């Protein structure tokens, strides 16, 4: 069976409200914040829900160095982590193309796309379908917090209807 031609995917502004079905937005704007260390530091507190499930779960702190992707970007698959959340935050202002769908059985009609600002990251909730890291414009380095431990924690699924992001503005 031939694969259909990619359909264009619209980009939405990344806000906490818009991203709520998929996880959390990591940003200082609107965050609970308070001074610590005798006022020399501001703590932006409790920004995401870290989820760790399955056997012998533990938190992994990683650095990802993503190559630069340029438009048009083909979206042919999504993945999910059934045993834990996964957070990405740019340590050098790299922007990401974020393509997601709600947890559960993949419903391709519910796929949505966002582009992060240089001071935004995301935390994919446990089971949220997402495309692996898509760093835009220049190679980027991201702090990634996700789940380690026993068991299978990455399901991949090819899209019946491939998508394409034509414009990264
Ligand atoms: N495989 C891996 O560690 N990274 C992916 O899960 C990803 O979302 O980039
Ligand atoms: Ni992932």
Automatic annotation (TrEMBL):
The record's Pfam families line, in alphabetical order, gives: Ureidogly_lyase
Q: Does the keyword Hydrolase apply?
A: yes
Annotated signal peptide? none
* Entry's EC annotation: 4.3.2.3
What reaction does this enzyme carry out catalytically? (S)-ureidoglycolate = urea + glyoxylate
Pathway(s): Nitrogen metabolism; (S)-allantoin degradation
Q: Which domain of life is it from?
A: Bacteria
Q: Which CDD domains match?
A: cupin_UAH
Q: Which UniProt keywords apply?
A: Hydrolase, Lyase, Purine metabolism
By sequence similarity, the record places it as follows: Belongs to the ureidoglycolate lyase family.
Could you tell me what this protein does? Catalyzes the catabolism of the allantoin degradation intermediate (S)-ureidoglycolate, generating urea and glyoxylate. Involved in the utilization of allantoin as nitrogen source.
Q: How does it assemble?
A: Homodimer.
Protein's UniProt name:
Ureidoglycolate lyase
């Amino acid at each position: 069976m031939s694969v259909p031609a990619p359909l264009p995917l619209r980009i939405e502004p990344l806000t906490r409200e818009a991203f709520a079905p998929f996880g959390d937005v990591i940003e200082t704007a609107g965050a609970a914040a308070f001074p610590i260390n005798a006022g020399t530091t501001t703590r932006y507190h409790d920004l995401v829900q870290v989820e760790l499930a399955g056997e012998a779960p533990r938190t992994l702190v990683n650095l990802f160095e993503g190559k630069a992707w340029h438009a048009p970007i083909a979206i042919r698959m999504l993945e999910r982590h059934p045993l834990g959340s996964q957070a990405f935050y740019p340590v050098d202002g790299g922007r990401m193309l974020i393509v997601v769908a709600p947890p559960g059985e993949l419903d391709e009609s519910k796929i949505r796309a966002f582009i992060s600002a240089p001071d935004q990251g995301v935390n994919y909730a446990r089971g949220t379908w997402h495309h692996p890291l898509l760093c835009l414009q220049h190679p980027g380095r991201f702090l990634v917090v996700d789940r380690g431990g026993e068991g299978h924690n990455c399901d991949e699924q090819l899209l019946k209807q491939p998508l394409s992001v034509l414009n990264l503005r």
